[in-house]
Design goal:
transmembrane, alpha+beta, 4 helices, elongated, 6-stranded mixed beta sheet, membrane, transmembrane helix, 10 strands, LPXTG-motif cell wall-anchored protein
Length: 218
Amino acid sequence: MRRLVAWLLLVVGLVSGLTGAALLTVLAPPATIDVVERSEDPGVAVVTSPGLVDLSGPDARISAEAADGADVFVAVARADDAEAWLAQARHTVVSGVTGDLSDPRARTSTTGSGAAADPRAADVWLASTTGRGSATLTWPTGSDADYRDGGGIVLLTATDGVAAAPGTVRLSWHAEGRAASHPAGIPLVVAGGVLALLGALGVLLAPRRTRPDARRRA
């Protein structure tokens, strides 16, 4: 009976360990959190809510593409400065990320009406860049604390403040912590290793049953 229990422990331990190893490697979550927002009517700008830039990882990246090849403007600003530039202009707000890590989705809302000033002529941006058809900008996370007096940090993309904002906007973060690995991976590996070790010792140390014909020969 003890030998059977030992074999069961060994098998369960090996299965648990292999499952945990798979969760940490081939079944691990993506290395980045990529959220793509596509809209036919985004308004004149797409802007994130304060705090979203610090979702995960050492930095956040915003990339935007305009279908018609127009100049694309992306920038980082204090929330108060971005709000002042937008005024009452129609724009899309990305307020959060929903869904699981394998298929994250942007939570958005659209507000305001009308146009804004040309963002390329404004001096409120902490960092900005412009590209023909597309543009990308990276900003370090953990920066909200340095700009609390301005309402935090937001990422923003637009074209010229009058035409529609880029229809495709991608927000990306490097996954860290729970987002970077399956929470059950390491516990399964540890538990599997312990069970397999106990099972192997039990198999080696359990007394072997002597067959009746062997006893008769003896």
